[in-house]
Specification:
mainly beta, six-stranded mixed sheet, 5 helices, elongated
């Protein structure tokens, strides 16, 4: 099956799959449709004349010009070698044919030799004299474009020579005139018909196009007699495979009249000094540049099974804020998701798009790595003036991949220009081309048919089109630089009618054209200069903010005075570093910043304990002084436009304070009796003119067996873990009854509590209500009542019975709570007696 039919069959299959699996296959269907329409059958049959000579009237011959370092000649530099990629040597063979001619006369050349070298450097076909007859000889244009007749499967084609590779990789072929062992460098040769084809040995007709490539090809435009001629056109097509795996197609048209010329696609331009701004300029040159380290240039679409192409680049991202800094130096910040070149477009003249010679500016940055990037801009517009802080900018960042340069040496005329298309990863049928011919100058002063003047060029300078660019076809030249970009480029004083080369614009020059295969653009609005930002740290006494940034200030409130140094710190959302940090006024809570960027999203203001250092990581969110809490978060995110920012407020509140009060002492009631705690044993204040509305007894009291609050009695085992809340008056005194049952003895019952203000904020400190309990002493005498008085009066002396008598202290329940011995004089006493009803009972036993 012919290859074109294979593609059509695949196209049908993908359409069926697309119907099943949906839009994910749309790209592939589109690509296959593009391939079937974009490539002619000639593109798909052979690698050589079929691509570079699309018709028999515009023959582009392969050239060998050794003394000018042009062509794949004996021991030529690697970048000049014609290479053939073998991917599976067990299945693939190399087939080739040529028609070698003497440069200048067009006569058949009998002294041409060739050899083939394997990827490992081994010469696998030693020097052989080329015969312009028999196998390998291409006798006609028709057989050249038909391709090799492999095993009789292509009777319209030529009979090829063949080679069966033994390893995978790049083979290369060299040609020269001279002998098997030496080359005559001044003897040039052309092959008007040529072909190198890789085909699968299984099935023979399975041609593997996109395998033949060279970094710097040498070609010659010849006439019908195979003689190089200034009147002969080349209308060849070739493909560049860039370092970042994109593919472009370049087509030359009738009117490209270069005589001998080189085809190369580079990343760097004409020179390779790592300064693309200058390396890309067209230059005067009497010799062909080396153009080494260029891209692989193919005569067909590179085989995508081997030369894998990249994905379409992801749109760059403008970071926020996109422009940082104050006049006159700014940082333009963006993010790329793939490496490539970047154009920054600053549209400042009020008219959409870039206009040359206006305030608009284009900044080019090359070899930008993947990730966050920053460009330092001097703040000047396209007219060289400093941009005022009121300027609004339409800011665009374009990520460009697949940078290509098309340096063309000594191509006298190209009146139809270049037609360049992006092929992979996306199809763009008309790419935008750029060039800078403004550095070209005349070479010599005279131009006539005299031989010596043909190395002159009197056509003057050309156009600087490095920023705006022109959609292809573009960059046409004839008798001058064609600054009006007319296609076809006009002749000047009959330059294209005479045989002189010195009045042709491309003579003894390297005319360079560049562009990019793919691009992705991001746009936003930006501004230069800095904004001011003001705010207040309010003492939000009523918690109106309620943990938000809404309604922080209410009537009667004032700026916070914490007595401590606090700072407002501005943080860059991209780097997380400090942009500015200022002290908050300690008396009224105000602060002001002056370096706030415009059009920032995600900027952060944070309240901190220490001042942040610009460009460094910020301090942590502040820890407020003891007795203060925040009513709004102490960090807030905001967005700017081109207007100053006000009201960037925060709320904090000074917390209420509970009192520490000791009540008057009282006699311990003893037993299970409770004692009321006076309301004035509690209290608290709100220093921010608020009011106390409740207290919370946070833990079970010390030295108590129970506490009763509003009629509910709690023991240590039943006391709530979260405490008990009791409503109060504005002085923090409870409006519900509280009583405690102290343990027996002289003890202090301590009740710990916190207070809450009417903003629903609890104190962070704890107050105490201390209730002291005391005991009493009980004493008496046992009398010898000798006078028999019965009226209860005492008369007589203490008894001395001569035996031990005990005094028993009995409580109201009849329980003996203490025992003591009556002294010999009849006295006894008890100490640490709780309050209550007691009786003393005497006994002779303990």
């Amino acid at each position: 099956m012919p290859i074109l039919n294979n593609i059509n069959a695949c196209n049908s299959i993908f359409k069926v799959l697309g119907a099943r699996f949906g839009r994910q296959l749309n790209y592939w269907i589109g690509l296959l449709a593009f391939l079937t329409s974009y490539f002619t059958p000639l593109d798909l049959k052979a690698e050589g004349t079929a691509s570079v000579s699309p018709n028999s009237s515009t023959i582009t011959a392969l050239g060998i010009l050794p003394d000018q370092n042009r062509g794949s000649y004996l021991n030529a530099a690697d970048f000049q070698r014609v290479k053939i990629r073998i991917n599976d040597h067990t299945r693939e063979n190399i087939y080739y044919g040529f028609n070698w001619r003497v440069y200048g006369s067009g006569n058949s050349a009998s002294d041409v030799y060739y050899r083939v070298t394997a990827p490992n450097g081994t010469i696998v076909i030693s020097a052989r004299n080329w015969s312009n007859s028999g196998a390998g000889f291409i006798s006609s244009y028709a057989t050249a474009v038909a391709g090799p007749n492999i095993n009789g499967t292509n009777t319209s084609g030529y009979t090829p020579k063949g080679y069966n590779p033994s390893q995978n990789g790049d083979y290369y072929i060299e040609f020269w005139r001279g002998s098997a062992s030496s080359m005559t460098a001044s003897d040039w040769a052309t092959s008007p018909y040529f072909d190198i084809t890789v085909a699968d040995t299984v099935g023979s007709t399975n041609v593997k196009n996109g395998r033949v490539n060279c970094t710097k090809w040498c070609f010659v435009a010849v006439n019908g007699s195979f003689v190089p001629s200034a009147g002969s056109s080349s209308a060849m097509t070739y493909y560049g495979y860039t370092a970042d795996s994109t593919v472009l197609k370049v087509s030359l048209a009738q009117g490209f009249k270069p005589i001998a010329f080189d085809i190369a696609v580079t990343k760097y331009g004409v020179a390779n000094t790592s300064n693309f701004l200058s390396d890309r300029r067209s230059v005067n040159s009497s010799t062909s540049p080396s153009l080494d380290s260029g891209y692989r240039v193919f005569l067909n679409l590179p085989d995508t099974n081997i030369f894998i192409y990249s994905k379409q680049p992801t749109q760059a991202q403008l970071n926020t804020p996109p422009i940082l800094g104050c006049s006159p130096n700014y940082l333009i910040r963006f993010k790329t998701f793939q490496a490539g070149d970047v154009k920054i477009i600053l549209d400042m003249n009020g008219t959409a798009g870039y206009q040359r010679g206006t305030a608009d500016t284009i900044i080019e940055i090359f070899n930008v790595p993947k990730g966050d990037n920053t460009y330092s801009w001097n703040g000047r517009n396209g007219l060289g003036n400093l941009v005022s802080s009121s300027t609004s900018i339409s800011l665009g960042v374009v990520l460009l991949r697949g940078r290509f340069n098309l340096p063309m040496y000594d191509a006298e005329m190209n009146d139809s220009g270049f037609k360049v298309s992006s092929v992979l990863p996306v199809v763009i049928t008309n790419s935008t081309l750029y060039w800078d011919d403004a550095q070209l100058t005349n070479v010599g002063t005279t131009c006539n048919s005299t031989t010596g003047t043909q190395q002159n060029n009197i056509t003057g300078t050309g156009l600087d089109n490095k920023f705006v660019g022109t959609v292809t076809p573009a960059h046409a030249w004839n008798g001058n630089g064609n600054v009006n970009q007319i296609i076809p480029a006009p002749a000047v004083s009959g330059n294209n009618a005479n045989t002189n080369q010195c009045d042709d614009y491309g003579n003894v020059r390297v005319i360079n054209t560049w562009g990019w295969v793919t691009s992705a653009t991001a746009n936003t609005t930006a501004g230069v200069g800095c904004l001011t930002l003001t705010g207040t740290l309010w003492n939000d006494i009523n918690n109106s903010a309620n943990n938000t940034f809404t309604n922080i200030f209410t009537t009667g409130e004032s700026g916070a005075n914490t007595g401590a140094s606090l700072y407002a710190t501005l943080i860059d959302p991209l780097t997380g570093n400090v942009l500015e940090s200022v002290l908050i006024n300690s008396t009224n809570g105000t602060y002001s910043m002056s370096t706030v960027p415009k059009y920032g999203t995600g900027l952060v203001i944070r309240i901190t304990n220490t001042q942040g250092t610009v460009g460094s990581a910020p301090p942590a969110v502040a820890t407020l002084p003891t007795g203060w809490t925040n009513t709004s978060p102490l960090s807030r995110t905001f967005t700017t436009t081109n207007s100053n920012v006000t009201g960037m407020d925060f709320g904090i509140e000074e917390l209420p304070s509970p009192s520490t009060i000791t009540a008057s002492s009282r006699v311990n009631p003893g037993g299970t009796s409770s004692s009321t705690v006076a309301t004035n044993s509690f209290g608290g204040t709100d220093p921010s003119s608020g009011q106390i509305d409740s207290l919370r007894i946070s833990s079970f009291p010390t030295n108590a067996t129970s506490i009763t609050i509003n009629g509910i009695t709690y023991t240590s085992g039943s006391f709530p873990s979260g405490g008990v809340v009791v409503p109060t008056n504005s002085s923090g005194q409870p409006t519900q009854s509280i009583s405690v049952d102290p343990v027996d003895g002289a003890v202090n019952v301590v009740i710990s509590y916190q207070v809450k203000d009417n903003a629903n904020k609890w104190s962070t400190t704890t107050g105490t209500a201390t209730v002291p309990f005391t005991t009493v002493g009980v004493s008496g005498t046992v009398f010898n009542d000798g006078n028999g008085l019965t009226d209860g009066s005492v008369n007589g002396t203490g008894t001395n019975t001569g035996s031990t008598i005990y005094a028993n202290l009995v409580d109201g329940s009849g329980n003996v709570v203490a025992v003591t011995t009556v002294a010999s004089n009849g006295t006894y006493s008890f100490s640490d007696v709780n309050g209550g009803n007691y009786s003393v009972v005497l006994s002779t036993t303990s």
